[in-house]
Amino acid sequence: MAKHTASNSKSTADKGADAKVRLDKWLWAARFFKTRAIAKQAVEGGKVHYDGQRSKCSRIVEVGAELVIRQGFDEKTVVIVAIAEQRRGAPEAQKLYSETADSQAKRELTAEQRKAMRGNLGPDVRPNKRDRRRIMQFKDQ
User: Fold this and answer.
1) How far apart are CA 139 and CA 141, in angstroms?
2) Nearest to residue 42, comparing CAs of 34, 77, 60?
3) Mean pLDDT of the chain
4) pLDDT band at 18, cuts 50/70/90?
5) Residue spans per domain, the chain
6) Is the dihedral of CA 95, 98, 104, 107 positive or negative?
7) Which of 55, 116, 131, 138 could, after both became Cys, cross-link 59 (CB 3.0–4.6 A)?
8) How far is the CA of 132 from the CAs of 23, 71, 121, 125, in angstroms?
9) pTM of the model
10) b/e string for 79-116 if b means 16 or more Cβ within 10 A?
11) Residue 93 dihedral angles phi and psi, to the nearest 5°
12) pLDDT at 83 exceeding the cut of 50
């Protein structure tokens, strides 16, 4: 049985700045994406920008780098605070990055706009046969 020594059992938090972690692995560890494969697809698809540029998923992340991550309708701008290569709980993952104030304000604004637009959707009920005929007559005029 292998004996664990202090040097072998260094945690990712102890490694800090000297840890070399790929971009897709860091995104997965920071819980932006559920799997590394999805993180890789996002990076390759241009949904993640590292310091303002598209990058490869094999890019080594550094503390202080700025990431722009697009997920669905939201776009987050985060700064890397710490590096981890293992996925931990959500409270620990949130300590790996900090979202900029501009990004938070922009996301809240777009969320409010989407919420306001939700009320302007069409009717909840499909038109019946009579309504469809009236619609067709109106369009033909």
Assistant:
1) 6
2) 34
3) 87
4) low
5) 12-116
6) negative
7) 55
8) 53, 38, 18, 12
9) 0.72
10) ebebbbeeebeeebbeebbeeeeebeeebeeeeeeeee
11) -65, -35
12) yes
Task: Choose between 115 and 76: higher pLDDT.
Answer: 76
Token pair for residue 52? Answer: 């303002």
Q: Which fold would CATH assign to domain 12-116?
A: 3.10.290
The Cα 59–Cα 51 span in angstroms is 12
Residues 24-51: tens digit of each pLDDT: 999 999 999 999 999 999 999 999 999 9
* DSSP 8-state code for residue 60: B
Cα–Cα distance, 56 to 102 (Å, whole number): 26
Q: Rounded distance, CA 99 to CA 78, Å? A: 4
Distances from the Cα of 86 to the Cαs of 20, 63, 68, in angstroms? 12, 16, 21
Counting beta carbons within 10 angstroms of the beta carbon of residue 61, is it exposed (0 to 12), middle (13 to 18) or buried (19 or more)?
A: buried
Tell me, what's the pLDDT at 125?
83
Query: In which band, very low, low, confident or very high, does the pLDDT at 4 lie, cut at 50, 70 and 90?
Result: very low
Q: Are 103 and 76 in contact (CB under 8 A)?
A: yes
